[in-house]
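Many introductory courses stop at the sequence. We go one step further.
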Amino acid sequence: MQVGFNAAYAVSLLVVGRLIDVIGLRFGFALACAFWGLASMSHSLAGTVAGFFICRILLALGEGGNFPAAIKTTAEWFPKRERALATGIFNSGSNVGGLLVPLALPPLVAWLNNVFLFGHKIGWRGAFLLTGLFDIVWIAAWLAIYKKPDQHPRVSPAELALINSDPPETTVKVPWARLFRFRQTWAFVLGKFMTDCFWWFYLFGAPVFFHERFGLDLKGRMGPVATIYVLASVGSIAGGWLSGNFLKRGWTTNKARKTAMFIYAALVFPVAFATISDNKWVAAALIALAGAAHQAWSANIFSLASDMFPRRVVASVTGLGGMAGSVGGILLFIVVGILKDHHLSYVPIFLAASVGYLAALFFMHLLVPKLEQANVDVNTTA
């Protein structure tokens, strides 16, 4: 089921990312969220495994609008020197949600089991209906509040000058196929493909790893897994802050981003030792450090999309990279499945994770040694 979800999510990132650039952020994101909310509510109608699987696929198709829209929002509202921090802050929200939802869901479902509507017990189905209702409220707030900075009544001239402090951009429409001509596109896509897969593994593979390596049951895994989520949130924010601080010191975007990303790539390296540790907390600490470093890396690689491309195509580029990351996750899940089927250890996965970020940065540097912006307004390769 997870592979199917990732495949649908990859398609969604590709399609919705472009859709947001074409019809605009405000309504494009609202449309994606509306689809997601309806897909979430549809779970309450599922009565079979096949029906539930279809609902999960629909949910994935709606979920892909989040990151392209979020990155485009930061590109519209923040100058380059502040985008990584803004990205790190919003990206940390998914980690907080991943930590809080498992804690809040059991008492919520227990309460819903005692709530009746028209003589029928609401039960677990009500949890999906509630998420859909929250989504409706959020969409209404988004449409009421969000506007571009130059159209927002509460943005002062000084704030607008700060937001637009980077060199001005043209508004010429860029065909989607043209993006594939640029080394910048392939650098971003390759970086996401080579590293996102390990974050998916930390999320879904770590609980299984703790069970198989240390014999931990569901309750015993809660502490180590929670540690991963908590440190990932910290890493997301700190990672965005560091490169922004380098930029404020006068460093070039190229030097600031790549120096920060090299530091985060190096911090992932010790995760290989998690497989040989006999202490669950040492292993948890190493995986949590890798997870935090990944989120710090993620805050910066997402910012590269707006560093290297104008705002009007940022969602499209983000969708391309996100799709590549999801495909990488699918391939890694397949490899993990093969290892489990043959009763082999996770050592190759952790070794790949330890060097994967350094390798990704190396190839990205070869493709864009100066991190220059792609000249999308002409029919030549940048």
